[in-house]
Every structure is written in structure tokens, then in C-alpha cells.
TrEMBL record:
Species annotation: Aplanochytrium stocchinoi
Record key words, sorted: Signal
Listed name of the protein: Methyltransferase type 11 domain-containing protein
Stretch forming the signal peptide: 1-18
Gene3D superfamilies: Vaccinia Virus protein VP39 (3.40.50.150)
Statement: the UniProt record of this protein carries the keyword Signal: yes
Domain Methyltransferase type: 141-211
A family per Pfam: Methyltransf_11
InterPro entries according to UniProt: Methyltransf_11, SAM-dependent_MTases_sf
GO molecular function (one): S-adenosylmethionine-dependent methyltransferase activity
SUPFAM superfamilies cross-referenced by the UniProt entry: S-adenosyl-L-methionine-dependent methyltransferases (SSF53335)
């Protein structure tokens, strides 16, 4: 098992250690600068025809997906298998990544959010790291999280629901309800990821975008075991494989390390689009 270095802030958060090789490419964007983009630029990034402007390393550039689901039941076991609802019952009004990584998420969202988008924030909390309304004005923003007190404080949300996705992955929303689904620094806690990614697909509108962002911090007793044993690059490949093997039709799956403005926390993103046709209702495989 890989070593963890326990940090003093945020409380109970540890950092997954390990080395990853990075390449800067030809990107000259200034990390941390959030500017309003044209609709044409946003649509190109959303569709995957161009990369986000602050990509540091295209991790999936030469990756070939496995032909079958490569993970085992033990990969999703955790040190603490007690109730997640109990674990998250006490509100935590802290940020789980540093300001540089937070700003990197805002910068990414500013490049893919369109005016009036209806957004689903999965595993939401008291803050969503969305860009300011002067950058983009969203439509409905729904939070799906574990703690009502945290969700109630989230000023970005127009409504929210409390649900333990590790207990039941079904979302309480109608088909094709959202333009974008996002998940910030929580995908590593999902014990039934294929079921969740199938639900994301169901509630996205045709052509809709799913965005998973994460760093190398975690609650080590609640994160899935394989996450602790693998590198940051492998985390990107693993999340991408969730899209590929959830039993629903995603396309243009891409995964990156993103540049951030200062701080120590790296930032990664995996994105995929629901296919434009709305007739691809396949039955998802069971998670394991």
C-alpha cells in the first residue's frame, strides 16, 4: 500500500503520495486567470475538439481502454465500511483542496459552462467552486449531497437533495434534466461508480457534459482501496474507465492534469459527453 502523509488542514484529510511525470506542452494560459469566453470557444472545449486552455498533461493521449471491466470487488473496499450517512452527518465547512486547485476548478468550469445551463453538482457540499455570475449565469443548479446543513449554505444551488449514493445510486431526477453534471473531489469515494455514471448519463440531455475533478487528498478510511494503491495518472485512467464501462454511451472521454496558480495540490479532470442521440438506453452492468 502506498504511504499517506497526514495534513493538518483540512481536518481528517490525507494526501495520497506518489510521483507522476508531467509535461507542459505548448499551453501558454496563465493559471488562475478566469475570463469570460465566447460561446464558440466554450462549445469547442465542451465537445472535445479543443482542450481546456490550462491543460498541463494529456494523460489519456495514448491510453487504450481495457475491453472489459478491469476492477474487482476488493478494489472498492474501504478501511471503514460503517455508515457513510453517519460519517458525513456532522457538517464540515472547510475546503478540501488548496486555493490554487479551487481556482483551477473554477477556471475549468468557466470554459465549459454556458449561459442558462442546468447543472447537477454530485456529492455537493457547502461550496461548489463555480465561477462568479459575472462570468456565466447558470439556470437551475441542483446539489446532490450527504449533509443538509452544508447544502443549505451553498449559495450556488437553487435546490438540493440529500442521498447516500453508496447505498442507492439512483438519482431522484427525470431523464434528460441537466446540461452538465459535475463532481468535485469526491469520485474516489464512490463504491458503485458504474451505477452512478449510468445515472449521470440518464439525467444528462443529449450531448450533455460530465466533469469529474479531483486531487490527491482524501479521507483515507472512506476512499476506495484501489485509490490509495495507485498513482495520480492511474486515477485519471480509472475514472475514464468508469465512463467507458458503465453500460451507457459516452463519447470523447478525455483526462488531464490541469495547471493551477500556486499551492501544492495537483488538479485532474476527466470529462465525457453523452452521445447526441437520446435513444441509447442500454441496461447498465452491475457495478462489479
Amino acid at each position: 500500500m502506498r504511504l499517506l502523509s497526514v495534513l493538518t488542514f483540512p481536518p481528517l484529510i490525507a494526501r495520497v503520495s506518489g510521483s507522476t511525470s508531467f509535461s507542459m506542452g505548448n499551453n501558454t494560459a496563465t493559471p488562475g486567470v478566469i475570463t469570460k469566453m465566447s460561446l464558440d470557444e466554450i462549445n469547442k472545449i465542451r465537445s472535445g475538439s479543443v482542450q481546456p486552455v490550462h491543460v498541463k498533461n494529456d494523460i489519456l493521449a495514448e491510453y487504450t481502454f481495457p475491453t472489459e471491466w478491469p476492477y474487482t470487488e476488493s478494489d472498492f473496499e474501504r478501511e471503514d465500511e460503517s455508515s457513510d450517512s453517519d460519517f458525513y452527518s456532522v457538517p464540515r465547512f472547510v475546503t478540501h483542496i488548496d486555493d490554487g486547485a479551487i481556482n483551477g476548478i473554477k477556471q475549468l468550469y468557466s470554459q465549459v459552462f454556458r449561459e442558462g445551463d442546468d447543472v447537477l453538482d454530485i456529492c455537493s457540499s457547502w461550496i461548489s467552486h463555480f465561477p462568479d455570475s459575472n462570468v456565466v449565469r447558470l439556470g437551475k443548479v441542483t446539489g446532490l449531497g450527504m449533509n443538509a446543513a452544508e447544502l443549505e449554505r451553498n449559495a450556488a444551488l437553487t435546490d438540493y437533495d440529500v442521498k447516500d449514493l453508496n447505498k442507492e445510486a439512483a438519482f431522484p431526477y427525470a431523464n434528460e434534466s441537466f446540461d452538465i453534471a459535475v463532481n468535485a473531489v469526491s469520485v474516489d469515494y464512490l463504491t458503485k461508480p458504474r451505477d452512478v455514471f449510468k445515472e449521470i448519463h440518464r439525467v444528462l440531455r443529449p450531448g450533455g457534459l460530465a466533469v469529474m475533478t479531483f486531487s490527491n487528498r482524501c479521507f483515507p478510511t472512506k476512499v476506495i482501496g484501489r485509490w490509495l494503491r495507485t498513482t495520480d495518472d492511474e486515477h485519471v485512467r480509472m475514472v475514464a474507465t468508469y465512463f467507458e464501462h458503465c453500460g451507457a454511451k459516452y463519447e470523447t472521454i478525455r483526462g488531464f492534469q490541469l495547471q493551477t496558480s500556486g499551492g501544492w495540490d495537483p488538479l485532474y479532470a476527466v470529462m465525457a459527453n453523452k452521445v447526441s442521440s437520446s435513444t441509447d438506453n442500454e441496461t447498465c452492468e452491475s457495478n462489479l
